[in-house]
Amino acid sequence: MNAARLHLEFPESLPVSGRRHEIEAALREHQVVIVCGETGSGKTTQLPKIALAMGRGRCNAAPGERGRLIGHTQPRRIAASSVAKRIAEELQTPLGQVVGYKVRFQDRLSKDASVKLMTDGILLAETQTDPDLKAYDTLIIDEAHERSLNIDFLLGYIRQLLPRRPDLKVIVTSATIDADRFARYFASSRGAAPVLMVSGRTFPVEVRYRPFEESRDYDLNHAIADGVDELWRGGAGQGGDILIFLPGEREIREAADHLRKHLSHQPVLRNAEVLPLFARLSQAEQERIFQPHGQRRIVLSTNVAETSLTVPGIRFVIDAGTARVKRYSLRQKVEQLLVEPISQAAANQRAGRCGRVADGICIRLYDEASFNSRPRFTDPEILRSSLAGVILRMKAMHLGAVERFAFIEPPTGRAIADGYQLLAELGAVDEANELTEIGRALARLPLDPRVGRMILEARQRGALDEVLVVAAALSVQDVRDRPLDKQTQADQAHKKFDDDKSEFTGTLKLWKWLEDSKGGHGTDHKLSHRQYENLLRENFINVRRVREWRDIHSQLHTVVAEQGWKASVQPARPAPGRPKPGDAPPGGSDPRSGGAWGPQDRSEGPPQARSAPRGGSDPRSGGAWGPATYEQLHLSMLAGLLGNIGCKNDTEDWYLGARGIKFHRHPGANLSKKPGRWIVCAELVETTRLFGRGIAAIEPQWLEQVGSHLLKKQVLDPHWEKKAGRVSAYERATLYGLVVYQQRRIDYSRVDPAGARELFIREALVGHLHEDTWDSRLPFLAANRRTVREVQDLEHKARRQDVLVDDELIYAFYDQQLPADISNGAAFERWYRDASKAHPKLLFLTREELMRHEAAGITTQAYPRTIRLGGVDCAATYLHEPGDPRDGVSVTVPIFALNQVSEDRCDWLVPGMLKDKVQALLKTLHQRPRSRLVPLPATAEKMTEALCQPEVFASGNLMDALLRLVREATQLPVQRNDIKVDMLPAHHFMHLRVVDEHGRQLGQGRNLGALKAELGAKARGAFQALASLKLQDIAAPAPAAAQPIPATDGGHRVPAPGKAQAPAKPGLKTSSAEQRHTTWDFGELPELMEIRKGGQTLIGFPALVDDGDAVRIEVFDEPEAAQARHRVGLRRLFALQIRDALKYLEKNLPGLQAMGVAYMAVGKTDSGGGGGTLEELKTQILDLALDRAFLTDPLPADAASFKARVDEGRGRLTLIANEITRHAGLILTEYAAAQRKLKDSKPPADVATDVQQQLQRLVPKTFLSSTPYPQLQHFPRYLKAVQLRLDKLRSDPARDAARLAELRPQDQRFWRLVAERKGVQDARLQELRWLLEELRVGLFAQELRTPQPVSLKRLDKAWAQLSG
After folding, report:
1. Distance CA 315, CA 361 (A)
2. Do residues 630 and 595 lie in contact, with contact meaning Cβ atoms separated by under 8 Å?
3. Is residue 540 left, alpha or beta, with left meaning phi > 0 and alpha meaning psi from -120 to 50?
4. Contact 501, 589 (CB under 8 A)
């Protein structure tokens, strides 16, 4: 149609019509014109008509000339279509004939049209197929103030295009544009681009500021309600709708509820409509806004109604002053939708929405100062968005580096780096930031780079069909509607689409339902278009968005075909019939159920093959495939969403995402169950908090498959593995800070061959010399290890560590001979087998190579391998490891020989270690004697020579032998306590290791007394078990007097040293441990006997053991124990011979009854129990009397001497018993007096405790039998001393306290030592015990005198002797 035939009219009421000729003149003179006009000035509809009037557009082309279009861009699809309709109506032409539109999902444009309305994204996409935009002679960029990415990029592209297209005219227009910036931006040789300001509008707008202070009782909703009352009840309240701007959907819903309640109480306004308006509304709800209405209306909208979109009938505006602004966080790499104050330009745009039908009023719910402080314009999107898509497109179009591109406001370097980082994440650019094959493929896809990367990956993994569906879904709003008044019903209807693990799988289930719902499968009837739409609405599915979803899906298929890719044929599904409105689509995300679509052909193979391309076909071959598995689908999705992964916190309900961000699962996630530990999100959006949307459960190992180029790997703890025979390490991989795997064992030689070789030599070869580090049978390893041990033994014996060469020298020996490529056991063995054929002694180390110098003096005689202890040769080992419990010489002692080990022999150690011990002992002497022994090393060596003479070494006590030599050398009376043995290091004392018959360790230590106290009873039992206690024929006749008498278990008896063995008398009874005797009928009892055990000879000590009404013979391993048990057994045997005399004596002991009463108080506890009985006292008196009468030394050893001793003691037994009874009575009397004195005097607590403990220890219930008889004579004096102390305490308590302070440390030290030895007191300890009692007499009752001088100093000497 020719322009002359068009109905071109310019309404005079529109201000832009009055400036029409100025605009035409400017366009003729300049390529770019900036037109600024208030909202409502008519610029959007009139500028295309002005261009037509100037002769531009296809309808004005000369015959035969190719006409061009007038391109007119709008930021939104709905605006493009509505503006096209309005212009077509004004031109009185059908839509599409002269004026049409093309948006993403619709094309209403004939081939002869002259004006093309479109979104700026459509025009930008056309630059790829038409780089010079030759299809256009005029471009009108409307609403340029929005400064979206598309607009900024398009303006920059046009600026570069203008020199190549001098015929192209460009009009940039907006109501709130920064005109000066744009004019300078499009400056040419003629200067800045002209700016035409179109002032005036149809109706004026009054701006009112109504700031409010938010509190608990008054919030934004109350302020909005007050604004509505003001507008509808004021002078302008005759009528008119109200448009209220709010930041988000939640605020709109809350405000709508509040307004409905508020208006319901007002009769005039209760019928007013309150309608929401936002992008996620269903098409029917959006169209309702534009339908004619009779009653008043309030429209609550986001900034979707701020520009382009004109809501009819709006007279008033209430502006909350905030909006959700999309910003990209460079730090967190996420999109943020935060509520922010709007700019001045946005506020003016909102104010311009009113006054369309009459004078308008705009109420701003903030003050004027706040308005003036706000920025003039909204930040351009390029400054608050990810630049990955812009960079990708620029590189594909060869527009140069983004840093040098002519943006109106260039982005920051950080934002550009972030864009490159995302492209690197997608594999779109290489290290030089140049496009890769993936990048070039992505640039050809008109999609977000992330979505495009998913499609590329799906092509390789055989999931293209599924990913195209999901990618299309991600490009549109969710097709599921949730009307405000039917949310519960909608959720119930949508539940059948929810998957338990993945929203992506749920999207496929929804798509499958949409396809199956049409019907037409098999014999099923296909629904009509209307029936199908009704079905969708019944299930709360948005029809328009479904159409958009399908359109994008179709476009993606077209793009795939254009690239030469052949999408997989959609899997053939059975014809289930049309689902009913409530039916759920079959299937789920379980791969075994037929993949992501649902149940399909189950011939796709085992689960372990699920990640392979379906059916085994190459995706590019176009073969027939089966359905994609869950793994295939989500691996493809992961390729574009690697920055959106998350790992769930162990304790709280949030996820740790890439680069340390924390996000939450979106509450509206369409999942039937909570997702797993690892998830991927389609997007991360920050509103009130950071949420993940589009969630799917993934496996962490998938990240390694698709994101291997992004994994940061650390190799930790390289180490030699004995079993594997190689150097291994642990690998830890992280993806943006998230640990994908750790502790993965890898071959370290693949990472660091040189480091692996060094570790192999150090651990497998050098380390094998000291411990078993490699299971290899190569001969040189065992030989070298034996040689090293020999040298180490020399070091331990010599107690010096400079004999064996350093490990570094051994390492150098191996390093020099090994090839450079040997780093593991297998390779080494192969090399060695070949190399050793020519050199049989290859890698063998000699003793000379391992020793720095000869170790002189290290002989078997100086360091024997066995030491004879307790008659047994015990294995000795040597260790030089200060601090180790086995440092020095360590001797393994069998348990049966423990009690026979001599402490004196242990002190001598071995000849090779004696010199150092002697020198250490000499160093502890006082200065005077030590000064006469210098130089000490020479003196110690000389004394050691004397001590190591065969007749001296290990004979007697070492300290006594050393003291003799010291006294001779110094001519001083050096005493035993002058040598401080406790100052010696631990290795100067023999370490004993006690083992049982199986070699298991029972105890160890350097204190022989403590070992005997701990294990003595067990050692005695082992010894007796060895002797078997089956002694046969102790007095059996011997073949000759000089030969030993055979015994069981390899033992034989010998007479006591110095005695001749008498010939046995014939006819004597035999004896064994099983026999019990009531008289001496077993022949002579030897003092000791020999027992053989494995070539070793042990000495046993036979003794009579009390068995109640008889005695039997046992063999003991210690003479002291044998002697003690023998005296008791012998006493029993004597008592059996004088039964009648003992019975008489029991009945006639003088004063026994009276003593029994006093004895009842002995050992009594605080509760009144535990006192002694008369029977116990009588038994002790008779036992002591028998000891005194019959057990005088020497004890009888045969029947004759036994009979003679019976006859001798029978006559004096009564006198001895009476004397003991009298003395016991005296002791008990003094004990009772001391107890009464203690009770009556009521001394201080510490004194009372000390006295009570003294009495309990001095007079226990067994005081007659447990106390040596000579000491019993002093008991009355000790008890009188207690009474005197209590008497003196009253007059001088301070003196008593001072004496007690002197005594207590000594007393505590003694009883602590007794406890350590488990109650065992030898002769020296007994001597110290009675010295303590004499010290008490000397401190508290000096008038009673002591048998010998006693003091603390003398006690210290006794302690020193005990320690020595």
Report:
1. 7
2. yes
3. left
4. yes
> If you ran DSSP here, which 8-state letter would residue 61 be given?
P
**3-class DSSP string for 501-542:** CEHHHHHHHHHHHHHHHCCCCCCCCCCCHHHHHHHHHHCCEC
Helix (H, G, I), strand (E, B) or coil at 1109: coil
Sequence-separated (6 or more) residues with CB below 8 Å from residue 648: 654, 655, 656, 676, 677, 678, 679
As averages over each run of 10 residues, the pLDDT of the chain (1364 residues) reads: 73 85 91 85 89 90 86 86 90 92 84 91 86 93 83 88 92 84 87 84 84 89 93 68 90 91 85 84 74 87 79 90 82 71 90 82 94 89 81 80 82 86 88 88 79 87 89 84 84 89 91 85 77 90 84 80 65 41 47 46 35 38 59 92 91 90 88 88 86 92 90 93 93 92 92 94 90 90 89 79 81 92 93 92 87 70 87 88 90 90 91 91 91 92 91 89 91 87 90 91 91 88 70 41 37 38 38 74 82 73 88 84 88 90 87 87 76 88 91 89 90 90 92 90 91 90 88 91 91 91 89 81 83 90 88 82 63
Rounded to whole angstroms, the Cα distance separating 1234 from 1279 reads: 7
Letter string b/e over residues 259-287, b meaning 16 or more CB atoms within 10 A of that residue's CB: beebbeeeeebeebebbbbbeebbeebbe
Q: Are strands 99-102 and 115-119 parallel, antiparallel or unpaired?
A: parallel
Assigned token pair, 207? 């701006």
Q: How many other CB atoms are found less than 10 A from the CB of residue 649? A: 12
Strand partners, 1001: 995
Euclidean distance between the first and the last CA atom of the chain, given in angstroms as a whole number: 131
Name the one residue in this structure whose structure tokens are 């391109």.
71
d(CA 344, CA 379): 11
- Tokens matching residue 640: 């574009």
Side chain identity at 490, as an amino acid letter?
A: A
Q: What is the DSSP letter of 707?
A: -
pTM: 0.53
Predicted local confidence at residue 574, as pLDDT: 37
Which residues make beta-bridge pairs with 1260? none
DSSP, res 217: S
The token pair at 600 is 């399909």
**Please, what is the Cα angle at 1119 between 1117 and 1122, to 5 degrees?**
80
Where would I find the H helices in 116-233?
Answer: 120-129, 149-161, 179-185, 220-233
Identify whether the C-beta of residue 903 lies closer than 8 Å to the C-beta of residue 892: no
SS3 content of the chain, % helix, strand, coil (to 5): 45, 15, 40
Tokens 């270690």 sit at which residue? 913
Beta pairing partners, 479:
none
Q: With the CA atoms of 132, 138, 139 and 142 taken in that order, what torsion angle do they form, in degrees rounded to the nearest 10?
A: 180
Q: Is the dihedral of CA 24, 29, 30, 33 positive or negative?
A: negative
- DSSP per position, 381-426: GGGSS--HHHHHHHHHTT---GGGS--SSPPPHHHHHHHHHHHHHT
Neighbours of 701 (CB within 10 A): 10
**Cβ contact 627:600 at 8 Å:** yes
Task: List, edge to edge, every strand of the sheet that includes 1096-1106.
Answer: 1045-1046, 1052-1054, 1088-1093, 1096-1106, 1111-1116
Q: Are 1255 and 1333 in contact (CB under 8 A)?
A: no
Long-range contacts formed by 1259-1265: CB under 8 A, 24+ apart: 1259/1162, 1259/1227, 1259/1231, 1260/1162, 1260/1163, 1261/1162, 1261/1163, 1261/1172, 1261/1176, 1262/1180, 1263/1162, 1263/1227, 1264/1177, 1264/1180, 1264/1181, 1264/1183, 1264/1184, 1264/1220, 1264/1224, 1265/1180, 1265/1183, 1265/1184
Entry field: residues in the chain: 1364
Beta strands 334-341; 107-108: pairing state: unpaired
Close Cβ partners of 808 (under 8 Å, ≥ 6 residues apart) = none
DSSP H or E segment with residue 267: none
- Taking residue 1161's Cβ as centre, other Cβ atoms within 10 Å add up to 15
